[in-house]
């Protein structure tokens, strides 16, 4: 397997099971870079789908929090989990952590012949094929379910491998429920097991010895034989592991039960610990998860919530006495930052441009079926916690796909999750991608957020909006028709949706252009920013729009910042602009420089809803240095434009810029 020093995602082809691997080195290392007393600990986890990808982060945080060793995670994933977790680890940049991905879809044929009633589905059987999936030179591995929380250093569990004797190849904790005793209900017929059986939420696997005893053949023959009478598994891989152990008890080393305290109902888990210091690993192995019956469940729940809401950025710390090998990405970042002048009054602004924000794509379940006509449009926006209340309204106004970047802390991400799960409107929509960018630094990285949301657009076109705007009813279909009518596919066009605003919290939203015009005349609506910043939208030419029945072209003018629909491959936003000021102006200037044509749609509109001023606009208004730095960044951007576009960019230099 390729162990190159190259950081981030490195493709290599795996010899066994033809598995494609993605390798991520967050400060990579060789197997024992920290000496024999600090071995690299290998952890394998099967993870598929959006929910498991979210759950596994809490497990990873709990392991990282306590660890003092280098770690190597081996994720067996479907394409969804691979996309989410590879992006997450890339942007997390944790030192002395390495990640590999193995394609679960290529392993399905190995286990798809086994009928399984367990809620984990086909992925619940994949731990059986780890000897075949993981690298041949990997001798031992700790295998974990995604619903595990560590309360101690995982190195303590790794040390248990030294206690294996003779033919012992599996380390397992006894099952703490009566399931395998077969007395839970009348006619309950479990798979064969040794006594109470063993739970496979935590497994120590001696891979090299397992291969020698022909594990692959052993479990297959056992499964085939038992399925003749049992017909299907009830507890996925656990049933098959137990049936093999029943026949070959010498294979198992019984781990003390505190290495897998099982918190499903009807368990004897309380016999595992006398006090808190006994607790090592908690396993939420009930579909009810945190609502399970256990007299100490409050303590366990608090431990779990600690890691759930823990700031993952704090886990980027270097290990003492275990320097990670030079990691090119991290080194490049340090070099770039070291070149910045810390005495520059705008240092913090410049630094933000290079900050790598930990990012969790598709935080909630997502489903999108591409339309056959290629004209589909995704609404793109970004928000922080204080704008969550806009989501339901936007979903009611826009039925098409939406890509949102949310700027949240770890604790806020959990609040958002609870809010979304409690909302019928949001839960009723599968075509909204929620991408959580975790907070770091003192600015709101507005353009980074926009870029993250844009990068996850799955349609050919995108409508670049803001979270405080409600699109008119029917805008989604109108934009799709305009794509075809204006032949946007074969031209460089930015379709302008005229923007209006109301100062009323309870607005009777206009159902048509005629209604909008009458509200405009009555003073219930205004053209957007009419009172404070007319230049931003003046080129839209609202006087012409009032009577227009066909689309019309407008020319770029200084400080123009309309809301536009463009092709997916349009330029991204410039990250140097953070917080308030010039973040959209610069983007529209870029579109103009690249010779996009601005076309105003005669029957489209969007309305800005009132809200309290954002923290960043308050800073802009009250902090002189903020305004000075913004002016400096603007000038640098304009110089950059003139270098890139030469004579054509002269108009951006000479345009009066008093924003």
Automatic annotation (TrEMBL):
Pathway where this protein functions: Protein modification; protein glycosylation
UniProt keyword Cytoplasm, yes or no: no
Keyword rRNA-binding on entry: no
A biological-process GO annotation: protein O-linked glycosylation via mannose
Membrane topology: Single-pass type II membrane protein
Chemical reaction(s) catalysed: 3-O-{(1->[3)-alpha-D-Xyl-(1->3)-beta-D-GlcA-(1->](n)-4)-beta-D-Xyl-(1->4)-Rib-ol-P-Rib-ol-P-3-beta-D-GalNAc-(1->3)-beta-D-GlcNAc-(1->4)-O-6-P-alpha-D-Man}-L-Thr-[protein] + UDP-alpha-D-glucuronate = 3-O-{beta-D-GlcA-(1->[3)-alpha-D-Xyl-(1->3)-beta-D-GlcA-(1->](n)-4)-beta-D-Xyl-(1->4)-Rib-ol-P-Rib-ol-P-3-beta-D-GalNAc-(1->3)-beta-D-GlcNAc-(1->4)-O-6-P-alpha-D-Man}-L-Thr-[protein] + UDP + H(+); 3-O-{beta-D-GlcA-(1->[3)-alpha-D-Xyl-(1->3)-beta-D-GlcA-(1->](n)-4)-beta-D-Xyl-(1->4)-Rib-ol-P-Rib-ol-P-3-beta-D-GalNAc-(1->3)-beta-D-GlcNAc-(1->4)-O-6-P-alpha-D-Man}-L-Thr-[protein] + UDP-alpha-D-xylose = 3-O-{(1->[3)-alpha-D-Xyl-(1->3)-beta-D-GlcA-(1->](n+1)-4)-beta-D-Xyl-(1->4)-Rib-ol-P-Rib-ol-P-3-beta-D-GalNAc-(1->3)-beta-D-GlcNAc-(1->4)-O-6-P-alpha-D-Man}-L-Thr-[protein] + UDP + H(+); 3-O-[beta-D-GlcA-(1->3)-beta-D-Xyl-(1->4)-Rib-ol-P-Rib-ol-P-3-beta-D-GalNAc-(1->3)-beta-D-GlcNAc-(1->4)-(O-6-P-alpha-D-Man)]-Thr-[protein] + UDP-alpha-D-xylose = 3-O-[alpha-D-Xyl-(1->3)-beta-D-GlcA-(1->4)-beta-D-Xyl-(1->4)-Rib-ol-P-Rib-ol-P-3-beta-D-GalNAc-(1->3)-beta-D-GlcNAc-(1->4)-(O-6-P-alpha-D-Man)]-Thr-[protein] + UDP + H(+)
Similarity comment text for this entry: In the C-terminal section; belongs to the glycosyltransferase 49 family.
Protein name: LARGE xylosyl- and glucuronyltransferase 1
Lineage: Eukaryota, Metazoa, Chordata, Craniata, Vertebrata
């Amino acid at each position: 397997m390729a162990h190159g020093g190259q950081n981030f995602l490195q493709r290599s082809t795996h010899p066994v099971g033809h598995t494609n691997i993605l390798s991520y080195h967050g400060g990579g290392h060789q197997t024992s870079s920290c000496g024999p007393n600090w071995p690299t600990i290998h952890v394998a986890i099967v993870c598929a789908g959006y929910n498991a990808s979210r759950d596994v982060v809490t497990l990873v945080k709990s392991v990282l929090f306590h660890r003092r060793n280098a770690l190597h995670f081996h994720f067996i994933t479907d394409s969804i989990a691979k996309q989410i977790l590879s992006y997450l680890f890339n942007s997390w940049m944790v030192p002395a952590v390495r990640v590999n991905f193995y394609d679960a879809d290529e392993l399905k044929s190995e286990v798809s012949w086994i009928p399984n009633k367990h809620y984990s589905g086909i992925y619940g059987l994949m731990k059986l094929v780890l000897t075949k999936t993981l690298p041949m030179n990997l001798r031992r591995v700790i295998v974990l379910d995604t619903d595990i929380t560590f309360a101690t250093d995982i190195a303590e569990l790794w040390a248990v491998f030294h206690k294996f004797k003779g033919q012992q190849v599996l380390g397992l904790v006894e099952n703490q429920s009566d399931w395998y005793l077969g007395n839970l209900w009348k006619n309950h017929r479990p798979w064969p097991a040794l006594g109470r059986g063993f739970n496979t939420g935590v497994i120590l696997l001696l891979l090299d010895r397992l291969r020698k005893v022909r594990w692959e053949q052993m479990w297959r023959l056992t499964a085939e034989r038992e399925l003749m009478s049992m017909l299907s598994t009830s507890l996925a891989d656990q049933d098959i592991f137990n049936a093999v152990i029943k026949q070959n008890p010498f294979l198992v080393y019984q781990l003390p039960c505190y290495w897998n305290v099982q918190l499903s109902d009807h368990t004897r888990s309380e016999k595992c610990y006398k006090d808190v210091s006994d607790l090592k690993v908690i396993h939420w192995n009930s579909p009810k998860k945190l609502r399970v019956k256990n007299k100490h469940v409050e303590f366990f729940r608090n431990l779990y919530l600690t890691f759930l809401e823990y700031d993952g950025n704090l886990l980027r710390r270097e290990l003492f006495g275990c320097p990670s090998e030079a990691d090119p990405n991290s080194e490049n970042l340090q070099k770039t930052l070291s070149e910045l002048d810390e005495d520059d009054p705008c240092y913090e602004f410049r630094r933000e441009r290079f900050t790598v924000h930990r990012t969790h794509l598709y935080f909630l379940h997502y489903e999108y079926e591409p339309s056959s006509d290629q004209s589909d449009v995704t609404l793109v926006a970004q928000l922080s916690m204080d704008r969550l209340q806009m989501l339901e309204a936007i979903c009611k106004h826009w039925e098409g796909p939406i890509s949102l970047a949310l700027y949240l802390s770890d604790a806020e991400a959990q609040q958002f999750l609870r809010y979304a799960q409690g909302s019928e409107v949001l839960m009723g929509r599968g075509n909204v991608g929620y991408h959580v960018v975790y907070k770091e630094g003192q600015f709101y990285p507005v353009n980074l957020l926009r870029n993250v949301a844009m990068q996850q657009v799955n349609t050919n076109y995108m409508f670049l909006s803001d979270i405080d705007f409600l699109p008119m009813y029917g805008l989604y279909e109108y934009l799709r028709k305009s794509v075809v009518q204006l032949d946007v596919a074969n031209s460089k066009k930015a379709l302008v949706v005229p923007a209006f605003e109301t100062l009323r919290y309870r607005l009777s939203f206009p159902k048509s252009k005629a209604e909008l015009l009458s509200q405009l005349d009555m003073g219930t609506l205004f053209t957007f920013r009419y009172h404070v910043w007319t230049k931003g939208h003046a080129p839209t030419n609202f006087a012409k729009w009032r009577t227009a029945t066909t689309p019309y072209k407008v020319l770029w003018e200084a400080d123009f910042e309309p809301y536009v629909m463009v092709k997916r491959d349009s330029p991204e936003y410039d990250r140097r602009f953070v917080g308030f000021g010039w973040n959209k102006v610069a983007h529209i200037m870029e579109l103009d420089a690249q010779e996009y044509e601005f076309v105003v749609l005669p029957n489209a509109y969007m309305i800005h809803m009132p809200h309290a001023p954002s923290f960043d606009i308050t800073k802009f208004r009250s902090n002189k240095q903020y305004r000075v730095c913004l002016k400096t960044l603007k000038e640098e951007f304009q110089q950059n434009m003139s270098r890139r576009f030469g004579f054509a960019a002269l108009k951006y230099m000479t345009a009066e810029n008093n924003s």
